[in-house]
Amino acid sequence: MFEQTFKNIDDILHKEAGCASELDYTEQTSWLLFLKYLDDLETARATEAELRGAAYTPIIDAAHRWSGWAAPKNAAGKLDHNVALTGPDLIDHVNKVLFPYLEGFKERATGPATIEYKIGEIFGEIRNKFQSGYSLRDAIDAIDELSFGSQAQKHELSHLYEAKIKNMGNAGRNGGEYYTPRPLIRAMIQVVKPRIGEKIYDGAAGSCGFLCEAYDYLLPQAKTVDDRRTLQDRTFYGKEKKSLAYVIGTMNMILHGIDAPNLVHTNTLAEQVLDIQEKDRFDVVLANPPFGGKERPEIQQNFPIKTGETAYLFLQHFIKSLRAGGNAAVVIKNTFLSNTDNASVALRRELLETCNLHTVLDMPGGTFQGAGVKTVVLFFERGEATRKVWYYQLDPGRTLGKTNPLNDADMADFIATQATFANGPNSWSVDASAIDPATCDLTVRNPNAPEAKPLRSPLEILDEIAALDAESAQVLARVRELL
Protein backbone atom coordinates (compact mmCIF):
# COMPACT_ATOMS: atom_id res chain seq x y z
CA MET A 1 0.00 0.00 0.00
CA PHE A 2 2.76 2.46 0.96
CA GLU A 3 4.62 1.85 -2.29
CA GLN A 4 1.54 2.50 -4.45
CA THR A 5 0.79 5.67 -2.49
CA PHE A 6 4.33 6.94 -3.10
CA LYS A 7 3.89 6.29 -6.84
CA ASN A 8 0.56 8.15 -6.81
CA ILE A 9 2.20 11.15 -5.10
CA ASP A 10 5.01 11.16 -7.68
CA ASP A 11 2.39 11.17 -10.48
CA ILE A 12 0.73 14.20 -8.86
CA LEU A 13 4.08 16.00 -8.48
CA HIS A 14 5.07 15.33 -12.10
CA LYS A 15 2.10 17.45 -13.16
CA GLU A 16 2.80 20.23 -10.65
CA ALA A 17 4.42 23.32 -12.24
CA GLY A 18 6.30 24.24 -9.04
CA CYS A 19 8.19 20.93 -8.90
CA ALA A 20 10.77 20.39 -11.61
CA SER A 21 13.11 17.65 -10.36
CA GLU A 22 13.45 14.57 -8.18
CA LEU A 23 14.92 16.84 -5.50
CA ASP A 24 11.68 18.86 -5.48
CA TYR A 25 9.57 15.70 -5.38
CA THR A 26 11.47 14.42 -2.33
CA GLU A 27 11.34 17.79 -0.58
CA GLN A 28 7.59 18.26 -1.07
CA THR A 29 6.71 14.66 -0.21
CA SER A 30 8.89 15.04 2.89
CA TRP A 31 7.06 17.89 4.60
CA LEU A 32 3.66 16.32 3.93
CA LEU A 33 4.77 12.92 5.20
CA PHE A 34 6.36 14.53 8.22
CA LEU A 35 3.17 16.32 9.28
CA LYS A 36 1.07 13.16 8.82
CA TYR A 37 3.65 11.19 10.80
CA LEU A 38 3.55 13.79 13.60
CA ASP A 39 -0.24 13.61 13.71
CA ASP A 40 -0.14 9.82 14.14
CA LEU A 41 2.65 10.16 16.73
CA GLU A 42 0.56 12.64 18.74
CA THR A 43 -2.47 10.34 18.59
CA ALA A 44 -0.38 7.41 19.88
CA ARG A 45 1.12 9.53 22.69
CA ALA A 46 -2.32 10.80 23.73
CA THR A 47 -3.61 7.20 23.88
CA GLU A 48 -0.60 6.10 25.98
CA ALA A 49 -1.13 9.00 28.38
CA GLU A 50 -4.83 8.17 28.72
CA LEU A 51 -4.03 4.53 29.56
CA ARG A 52 -1.69 5.77 32.31
CA GLY A 53 -4.33 8.18 33.57
CA ALA A 54 -2.09 11.14 32.68
CA ALA A 55 -2.78 14.33 30.78
CA TYR A 56 -1.21 14.87 27.36
CA THR A 57 -0.39 18.29 25.95
CA PRO A 58 -0.17 18.15 22.13
CA ILE A 59 2.92 19.54 20.38
CA ILE A 60 0.82 21.10 17.60
CA ASP A 61 -2.50 22.73 18.46
CA ALA A 62 -5.77 21.41 17.04
CA ALA A 63 -6.14 24.03 14.32
CA HIS A 64 -2.69 23.36 12.84
CA ARG A 65 -2.60 19.58 13.21
CA TRP A 66 -2.93 17.43 10.11
CA SER A 67 -6.35 16.27 11.26
CA GLY A 68 -7.42 19.91 11.64
CA TRP A 69 -6.40 21.54 8.35
CA ALA A 70 -5.36 18.76 5.94
CA ALA A 71 -7.84 15.97 6.58
CA PRO A 72 -10.78 17.04 8.77
CA LYS A 73 -13.19 14.13 9.14
CA ASN A 74 -16.97 13.97 9.51
CA ALA A 75 -18.87 11.72 11.93
CA ALA A 76 -18.50 8.77 9.50
CA GLY A 77 -14.68 9.14 9.50
CA LYS A 78 -14.62 10.39 5.91
CA LEU A 79 -13.02 13.59 4.63
CA ASP A 80 -15.35 16.48 5.44
CA HIS A 81 -15.53 18.33 2.11
CA ASN A 82 -17.47 21.18 3.75
CA VAL A 83 -14.45 21.98 5.94
CA ALA A 84 -11.42 20.71 3.96
CA LEU A 85 -9.64 23.46 2.04
CA THR A 86 -8.71 23.11 -1.62
CA GLY A 87 -7.63 25.25 -4.59
CA PRO A 88 -6.23 28.76 -3.89
CA ASP A 89 -7.66 28.71 -0.32
CA LEU A 90 -5.48 25.70 0.52
CA ILE A 91 -2.30 27.29 -0.90
CA ASP A 92 -3.01 30.53 1.00
CA HIS A 93 -3.55 28.66 4.27
CA VAL A 94 -0.35 26.60 3.92
CA ASN A 95 1.84 29.55 2.94
CA LYS A 96 0.39 32.27 5.19
CA VAL A 97 -0.89 30.39 8.23
CA LEU A 98 0.56 26.87 8.58
CA PHE A 99 4.23 27.40 7.69
CA PRO A 100 4.66 30.58 9.80
CA TYR A 101 3.06 28.79 12.79
CA LEU A 102 5.36 25.77 12.42
CA GLU A 103 8.46 27.93 11.88
CA GLY A 104 7.63 29.75 15.13
CA PHE A 105 8.31 26.56 17.10
CA LYS A 106 12.04 27.34 16.94
CA GLU A 107 11.52 30.44 19.09
CA ARG A 108 8.98 28.77 21.40
CA ALA A 109 10.95 25.52 22.06
CA THR A 110 12.64 24.99 25.43
CA GLY A 111 15.91 24.00 23.71
CA PRO A 112 17.52 22.59 20.56
CA ALA A 113 17.32 18.96 21.77
CA THR A 114 13.52 18.89 21.41
CA ILE A 115 11.18 17.81 18.62
CA GLU A 116 9.57 21.28 18.83
CA TYR A 117 12.86 22.95 17.91
CA LYS A 118 13.37 20.51 15.01
CA ILE A 119 9.88 21.30 13.68
CA GLY A 120 10.73 25.01 13.76
CA GLU A 121 14.06 24.46 12.00
CA ILE A 122 12.55 22.26 9.28
CA PHE A 123 9.76 24.71 8.43
CA GLY A 124 12.17 27.63 8.58
CA GLU A 125 14.23 25.99 5.81
CA ILE A 126 11.66 24.30 3.60
CA ARG A 127 9.12 26.03 1.35
CA ASN A 128 5.85 24.83 -0.14
CA LYS A 129 6.44 24.53 -3.90
CA PHE A 130 2.91 23.48 -4.83
CA GLN A 131 1.34 26.18 -6.98
CA SER A 132 -1.95 24.39 -7.57
CA GLY A 133 -4.14 23.88 -4.52
CA TYR A 134 -5.92 21.09 -6.38
CA SER A 135 -2.65 19.14 -6.84
CA LEU A 136 -1.83 19.74 -3.16
CA ARG A 137 -5.28 18.44 -2.16
CA ASP A 138 -4.70 15.28 -4.23
CA ALA A 139 -1.29 14.75 -2.56
CA ILE A 140 -2.76 15.31 0.92
CA ASP A 141 -5.57 12.83 0.26
CA ALA A 142 -3.03 10.22 -0.91
CA ILE A 143 -0.82 10.66 2.17
CA ASP A 144 -3.81 10.66 4.52
CA GLU A 145 -4.45 7.03 3.51
CA LEU A 146 -1.16 6.05 5.17
CA SER A 147 -0.97 5.01 8.80
CA PHE A 148 2.18 5.05 10.93
CA GLY A 149 0.73 3.51 14.07
CA SER A 150 2.71 0.25 14.22
CA GLN A 151 6.48 -0.41 14.20
CA ALA A 152 6.06 -2.46 11.01
CA GLN A 153 4.41 0.52 9.28
CA LYS A 154 7.14 2.89 10.46
CA HIS A 155 9.78 0.43 9.26
CA GLU A 156 8.17 0.21 5.80
CA LEU A 157 7.91 4.00 5.63
CA SER A 158 11.58 4.50 6.53
CA HIS A 159 12.65 2.06 3.78
CA LEU A 160 10.48 3.75 1.16
CA TYR A 161 11.81 7.14 2.23
CA GLU A 162 15.35 5.80 1.82
CA ALA A 163 14.43 4.66 -1.70
CA LYS A 164 13.15 8.17 -2.42
CA ILE A 165 16.45 9.68 -1.21
CA LYS A 166 18.30 7.19 -3.42
CA ASN A 167 16.28 8.31 -6.46
CA MET A 168 17.07 11.90 -5.56
CA GLY A 169 20.74 10.95 -5.39
CA ASN A 170 20.56 9.41 -8.86
CA ALA A 171 18.90 12.53 -10.24
CA GLY A 172 22.07 14.58 -10.36
CA ARG A 173 25.29 15.76 -8.79
CA ASN A 174 23.70 17.75 -5.99
CA GLY A 175 21.35 14.94 -5.02
CA GLY A 176 24.15 12.41 -5.30
CA GLU A 177 26.05 14.20 -2.56
CA TYR A 178 23.36 13.02 -0.15
CA TYR A 179 23.43 9.32 -0.96
CA THR A 180 26.00 6.67 -0.04
CA PRO A 181 25.10 3.06 -1.02
CA ARG A 182 23.57 1.44 2.05
CA PRO A 183 25.44 -1.90 1.63
CA LEU A 184 28.73 0.03 1.92
CA ILE A 185 27.49 1.91 5.01
CA ARG A 186 26.36 -1.33 6.66
CA ALA A 187 29.74 -2.94 5.97
CA MET A 188 31.58 0.05 7.46
CA ILE A 189 29.41 -0.16 10.60
CA GLN A 190 29.98 -3.92 10.94
CA VAL A 191 33.74 -3.37 10.85
CA VAL A 192 33.69 -0.49 13.35
CA LYS A 193 31.20 -2.32 15.65
CA PRO A 194 29.74 0.61 17.64
CA ARG A 195 28.28 -0.15 21.07
CA ILE A 196 25.42 1.37 23.06
CA GLY A 197 26.83 4.22 25.14
CA GLU A 198 29.26 5.37 22.45
CA LYS A 199 28.76 8.72 20.73
CA ILE A 200 28.56 8.38 16.93
CA TYR A 201 29.27 11.35 14.65
CA ASP A 202 28.95 12.36 11.01
CA GLY A 203 30.08 15.92 10.30
CA ALA A 204 28.94 15.71 6.64
CA ALA A 205 25.61 14.09 7.44
CA GLY A 206 23.66 14.64 4.19
CA SER A 207 20.49 12.54 4.42
CA CYS A 208 21.85 10.90 7.62
CA GLY A 209 22.25 7.45 6.05
CA PHE A 210 25.20 6.60 8.33
CA LEU A 211 23.36 7.64 11.50
CA CYS A 212 20.12 5.86 10.51
CA GLU A 213 21.95 2.63 9.64
CA ALA A 214 23.93 2.83 12.90
CA TYR A 215 20.61 3.22 14.77
CA ASP A 216 19.21 0.14 13.02
CA TYR A 217 22.43 -1.75 13.92
CA LEU A 218 22.26 -0.79 17.62
CA LEU A 219 18.49 -1.00 18.21
CA PRO A 220 18.39 -4.82 18.63
CA GLN A 221 21.09 -4.44 21.34
CA ALA A 222 18.89 -2.05 23.37
CA LYS A 223 17.53 -4.37 26.07
CA THR A 224 16.39 -1.80 28.65
CA VAL A 225 14.48 1.49 28.80
CA ASP A 226 17.78 3.23 29.64
CA ASP A 227 19.40 1.72 26.54
CA ARG A 228 16.59 3.04 24.36
CA ARG A 229 16.80 6.48 25.99
CA THR A 230 20.57 6.49 25.37
CA LEU A 231 19.97 5.75 21.68
CA GLN A 232 17.37 8.51 21.47
CA ASP A 233 19.27 11.26 23.27
CA ARG A 234 23.00 10.62 23.61
CA THR A 235 24.25 8.50 20.71
CA PHE A 236 23.84 10.08 17.25
CA TYR A 237 25.30 13.45 16.32
CA GLY A 238 25.57 15.16 12.95
CA LYS A 239 26.23 18.43 11.15
CA GLU A 240 25.05 19.45 7.70
CA LYS A 241 25.60 22.64 5.73
CA LYS A 242 23.00 22.44 2.95
CA SER A 243 19.40 23.32 3.77
CA LEU A 244 17.63 20.60 1.78
CA ALA A 245 20.01 17.89 2.98
CA TYR A 246 19.58 19.09 6.57
CA VAL A 247 15.79 18.94 6.33
CA ILE A 248 15.76 15.52 4.66
CA GLY A 249 18.37 14.17 7.10
CA THR A 250 16.36 15.36 10.11
CA MET A 251 13.16 13.81 8.77
CA ASN A 252 14.96 10.60 7.81
CA MET A 253 16.15 10.17 11.40
CA ILE A 254 12.71 10.98 12.84
CA LEU A 255 11.03 8.53 10.44
CA HIS A 256 13.57 5.89 11.51
CA GLY A 257 12.49 6.41 15.12
CA ILE A 258 14.81 9.08 16.59
CA ASP A 259 12.39 11.72 17.90
CA ALA A 260 14.71 14.73 18.26
CA PRO A 261 17.88 14.19 16.22
CA ASN A 262 21.10 15.87 17.40
CA LEU A 263 21.61 17.29 13.91
CA VAL A 264 22.96 20.83 13.60
CA HIS A 265 22.51 23.03 10.51
CA THR A 266 26.00 24.51 10.18
CA ASN A 267 29.13 24.58 8.05
CA THR A 268 31.31 22.03 9.85
CA LEU A 269 34.45 23.42 8.24
CA ALA A 270 33.87 26.90 9.67
CA GLU A 271 34.92 25.50 13.06
CA GLN A 272 38.53 26.11 14.11
CA VAL A 273 39.80 22.53 14.22
CA LEU A 274 42.45 23.20 16.89
CA ASP A 275 39.73 24.50 19.24
CA ILE A 276 37.98 21.11 19.45
CA GLN A 277 37.95 20.12 23.14
CA GLU A 278 37.80 16.67 24.73
CA LYS A 279 34.12 17.22 25.61
CA ASP A 280 33.40 17.78 21.91
CA ARG A 281 34.96 14.48 20.78
CA PHE A 282 33.25 11.25 19.73
CA ASP A 283 33.81 7.50 20.07
CA VAL A 284 32.91 6.70 16.45
CA VAL A 285 33.08 8.70 13.20
CA LEU A 286 31.23 7.39 10.13
CA ALA A 287 31.25 9.66 7.09
CA ASN A 288 31.43 10.21 3.35
CA PRO A 289 32.47 13.87 3.09
CA PRO A 290 31.86 15.73 -0.18
CA PHE A 291 34.92 15.83 -2.44
CA GLY A 292 35.98 17.99 -5.33
CA GLY A 293 34.80 21.22 -3.69
CA LYS A 294 37.04 24.23 -3.38
CA GLU A 295 36.99 25.93 0.00
CA ARG A 296 37.70 29.64 0.42
CA PRO A 297 40.94 30.87 2.08
CA GLU A 298 39.14 31.96 5.28
CA ILE A 299 37.82 28.40 5.73
CA GLN A 300 41.28 26.93 5.07
CA GLN A 301 42.66 29.11 7.90
CA ASN A 302 40.77 26.90 10.38
CA PHE A 303 43.10 23.96 9.60
CA PRO A 304 46.80 23.26 10.18
CA ILE A 305 47.13 21.68 6.72
CA LYS A 306 45.92 24.28 4.23
CA THR A 307 44.12 22.94 1.15
CA GLY A 308 41.13 23.88 -0.99
CA GLU A 309 40.01 20.23 -1.24
CA THR A 310 36.87 19.89 0.90
CA ALA A 311 37.39 16.20 1.70
CA TYR A 312 40.92 16.81 3.05
CA LEU A 313 39.63 19.48 5.44
CA PHE A 314 36.89 17.10 6.61
CA LEU A 315 39.47 14.36 7.20
CA GLN A 316 41.47 16.72 9.44
CA HIS A 317 38.23 17.58 11.28
CA PHE A 318 37.37 13.90 11.77
CA ILE A 319 40.83 13.03 13.13
CA LYS A 320 40.60 15.87 15.68
CA SER A 321 36.98 14.96 16.53
CA LEU A 322 37.87 11.41 17.61
CA ARG A 323 38.66 10.74 21.24
CA ALA A 324 41.75 8.64 22.04
CA GLY A 325 40.83 5.04 21.24
CA GLY A 326 37.93 6.15 19.05
CA ASN A 327 37.29 4.48 15.68
CA ALA A 328 36.50 5.96 12.29
CA ALA A 329 35.46 4.78 8.83
CA VAL A 330 35.65 7.53 6.19
CA VAL A 331 35.07 7.38 2.42
CA ILE A 332 37.55 9.39 0.33
CA LYS A 333 38.76 9.60 -3.29
CA ASN A 334 41.45 6.98 -4.01
CA THR A 335 43.78 9.70 -5.35
CA PHE A 336 44.28 10.76 -1.71
CA LEU A 337 46.52 7.71 -1.31
CA SER A 338 48.99 8.77 -4.00
CA ASN A 339 48.75 12.53 -4.70
CA THR A 340 52.16 14.19 -4.39
CA ASP A 341 51.08 17.75 -3.49
CA ASN A 342 52.19 19.06 -0.09
CA ALA A 343 48.74 18.92 1.53
CA SER A 344 48.14 15.27 0.53
CA VAL A 345 51.56 14.16 1.79
CA ALA A 346 51.19 16.12 5.05
CA LEU A 347 47.70 14.72 5.67
CA ARG A 348 48.79 11.12 5.04
CA ARG A 349 51.70 11.68 7.45
CA GLU A 350 49.31 13.11 10.06
CA LEU A 351 47.01 10.09 9.65
CA LEU A 352 49.85 7.55 9.93
CA GLU A 353 51.52 9.24 12.92
CA THR A 354 48.46 10.07 15.05
CA CYS A 355 46.17 7.17 14.13
CA ASN A 356 46.38 3.45 13.51
CA LEU A 357 45.27 3.21 9.88
CA HIS A 358 44.55 -0.51 10.08
CA THR A 359 42.37 -1.04 6.97
CA VAL A 360 42.05 0.43 3.48
CA LEU A 361 39.07 -0.82 1.46
CA ASP A 362 39.49 -0.19 -2.29
CA MET A 363 36.07 0.16 -3.93
CA PRO A 364 35.43 -0.60 -7.62
CA GLY A 365 34.37 2.03 -10.16
CA GLY A 366 30.61 2.53 -10.34
CA THR A 367 30.08 2.22 -6.57
CA PHE A 368 28.80 5.79 -6.50
CA GLN A 369 26.40 6.18 -9.40
CA GLY A 370 27.19 9.16 -11.59
CA ALA A 371 30.21 10.22 -9.52
CA GLY A 372 32.83 9.09 -12.06
CA VAL A 373 35.56 8.66 -9.43
CA LYS A 374 37.03 5.69 -7.60
CA THR A 375 36.94 5.71 -3.82
CA VAL A 376 38.54 4.01 -0.84
CA VAL A 377 37.37 3.67 2.76
CA LEU A 378 39.88 4.48 5.49
CA PHE A 379 39.39 2.65 8.80
CA PHE A 380 41.48 4.07 11.63
CA GLU A 381 41.75 4.32 15.41
CA ARG A 382 43.01 7.50 17.05
CA GLY A 383 45.83 7.54 19.58
CA GLU A 384 48.51 5.17 18.28
CA ALA A 385 50.73 5.36 15.22
CA THR A 386 50.08 2.99 12.34
CA ARG A 387 51.98 -0.30 12.56
CA LYS A 388 50.53 -2.21 9.62
CA VAL A 389 47.99 -1.37 6.91
CA TRP A 390 45.71 -4.14 5.67
CA TYR A 391 44.33 -3.62 2.15
CA TYR A 392 41.28 -5.20 0.56
CA GLN A 393 40.48 -4.76 -3.13
CA LEU A 394 36.74 -5.32 -3.62
CA ASP A 395 35.89 -7.21 -6.81
CA PRO A 396 32.15 -7.94 -7.17
CA GLY A 397 32.80 -9.84 -10.40
CA ARG A 398 30.64 -7.52 -12.47
CA THR A 399 30.43 -3.91 -13.59
CA LEU A 400 28.53 -1.78 -11.08
CA GLY A 401 25.98 0.76 -12.31
CA LYS A 402 22.45 2.09 -11.92
CA THR A 403 20.81 -1.19 -12.94
CA ASN A 404 23.42 -3.32 -11.16
CA PRO A 405 24.23 -1.57 -7.87
CA LEU A 406 26.37 -2.70 -4.95
CA ASN A 407 24.58 -5.18 -2.65
CA ASP A 408 25.18 -6.68 0.81
CA ALA A 409 26.44 -9.96 -0.64
CA ASP A 410 29.24 -8.04 -2.40
CA MET A 411 30.53 -6.89 0.99
CA ALA A 412 30.33 -10.22 2.83
CA ASP A 413 33.85 -11.49 2.03
CA PHE A 414 35.41 -8.16 3.01
CA ILE A 415 33.64 -8.17 6.39
CA ALA A 416 34.62 -11.80 7.09
CA THR A 417 38.23 -11.39 5.94
CA GLN A 418 38.77 -8.07 7.73
CA ALA A 419 37.91 -9.64 11.09
CA THR A 420 41.26 -11.50 11.05
CA PHE A 421 43.16 -9.28 8.57
CA ALA A 422 43.69 -12.42 6.50
CA ASN A 423 45.74 -12.25 3.30
CA GLY A 424 44.31 -13.65 0.07
CA PRO A 425 43.95 -12.95 -3.66
CA ASN A 426 42.26 -9.59 -2.90
CA SER A 427 43.90 -8.72 0.43
CA TRP A 428 47.41 -8.06 1.70
CA SER A 429 49.29 -6.20 4.43
CA VAL A 430 51.98 -3.51 4.30
CA ASP A 431 54.21 -2.79 7.30
CA ALA A 432 54.44 0.87 8.26
CA SER A 433 58.24 0.54 8.02
CA ALA A 434 57.86 -0.22 4.29
CA ILE A 435 55.99 3.06 3.63
CA ASP A 436 58.26 5.75 2.16
CA PRO A 437 58.62 8.37 4.94
CA ALA A 438 59.21 11.15 2.39
CA THR A 439 55.98 10.64 0.42
CA CYS A 440 53.89 8.48 2.78
CA ASP A 441 52.56 6.88 -0.40
CA LEU A 442 49.65 4.52 0.35
CA THR A 443 48.75 3.56 -3.24
CA VAL A 444 46.77 0.33 -3.66
CA ARG A 445 49.19 -2.20 -5.21
CA ASN A 446 47.97 -5.78 -4.98
CA PRO A 447 51.06 -8.04 -4.82
CA ASN A 448 48.82 -11.12 -5.29
CA ALA A 449 47.33 -9.99 -8.61
CA PRO A 450 48.57 -11.87 -11.70
CA GLU A 451 51.52 -10.07 -13.21
CA ALA A 452 50.73 -8.16 -16.36
CA LYS A 453 52.84 -8.99 -19.37
CA PRO A 454 55.70 -6.48 -19.69
CA LEU A 455 55.07 -3.77 -22.26
CA ARG A 456 57.02 -4.14 -25.50
CA SER A 457 59.51 -1.48 -26.49
CA PRO A 458 58.55 0.98 -29.28
CA LEU A 459 61.27 -0.59 -31.50
CA GLU A 460 59.68 -4.07 -31.19
CA ILE A 461 56.26 -2.65 -32.08
CA LEU A 462 57.69 -0.87 -35.16
CA ASP A 463 59.43 -4.09 -36.27
CA GLU A 464 56.13 -5.99 -36.02
CA ILE A 465 54.31 -3.30 -38.04
CA ALA A 466 57.00 -3.52 -40.75
CA ALA A 467 56.72 -7.33 -40.83
CA LEU A 468 52.92 -7.16 -41.13
CA ASP A 469 53.23 -4.57 -43.93
CA ALA A 470 55.63 -6.85 -45.82
CA GLU A 471 53.25 -9.80 -45.40
CA SER A 472 50.33 -7.70 -46.69
CA ALA A 473 52.39 -6.63 -49.73
CA GLN A 474 53.12 -10.29 -50.58
CA VAL A 475 49.41 -11.22 -50.35
CA LEU A 476 48.45 -8.29 -52.60
CA ALA A 477 51.14 -9.29 -55.13
CA ARG A 478 49.72 -12.85 -55.37
CA VAL A 479 46.21 -11.44 -55.88
CA ARG A 480 47.48 -9.28 -58.78
CA GLU A 481 49.04 -12.35 -60.44
CA LEU A 482 45.66 -14.10 -60.34
CA LEU A 483 43.82 -11.24 -62.04
Automatic annotation (TrEMBL):
It catalyses: a 2'-deoxyadenosine in DNA + S-adenosyl-L-methionine = an N(6)-methyl-2'-deoxyadenosine in DNA + S-adenosyl-L-homocysteine + H(+). One of its GO terms (biological process) is methylation. Its EC number is 2.1.1.72. Keywords: Methyltransferase, Restriction system, S-adenosyl-L-methionine, Transferase. PANTHER family: SLR6095 PROTEIN, TYPE I RESTRICTION ENZYME ECOKI METHYLASE SUBUNIT. Belongs to the N(4)/N(6)-methyltransferase family. This is site-specific DNA-methyltransferase (adenine-specific). It comes from Novosphingobium bradum. The lineage of its organism: Bacteria, Pseudomonadati, Pseudomonadota, Alphaproteobacteria, Sphingomonadales.
